[in-house]
Amino acid sequence: MTTATAVSTGTWTIDPTHTEVGFSVRHLMSKVRGKFEAVEGTIVTQEDLTASTVNVTVDLNSINTGTADRDNHLRSADFFEVESYPKMTFVSTGIVQKSETDFVVTGDLTIKGVSKPVELTTEFLGEGGDPWGGTRVGVEATAEISRKEFGIDFNIPLEGGKVMVGDKISIHIVAEAVLQA
Fold this sequence. Notes:
elongated
């Protein structure tokens, strides 16, 4: 039987200055890494943590791979088409506790108007006070998605049946959230 993790119940607001939504994707013979710098959302915790909810919105315009030309291309219709679809959202549909600190958070990820179920393998990093009198929680989560399932299928064919950009996107999230009074 899984031991219950002690977390204060209530509504937590994601702290964007202490949260990173990162990704990596195969590009030619290496991987490109990037992150989204504008994220907001809430976590509503219940006494039974598996009844808690997560709701997150990411501003796709905030993509940063460290290369301005690549970031602008990713914002274009070839990829995210941010003029028509400026936000990516995640809304949880269920939580399963695997151990004292390990969870699987299932939810609907929406990119370019396409919603697909995604499982986030999530580690609870703890709860504690901060220097400003607040209470914070930390989590780290990972997932892998197919970009083609979300209508992001731009590519350039290469020799030998290869392509320039891989289909699988690895997602890595580290987040802090502050309990609201």
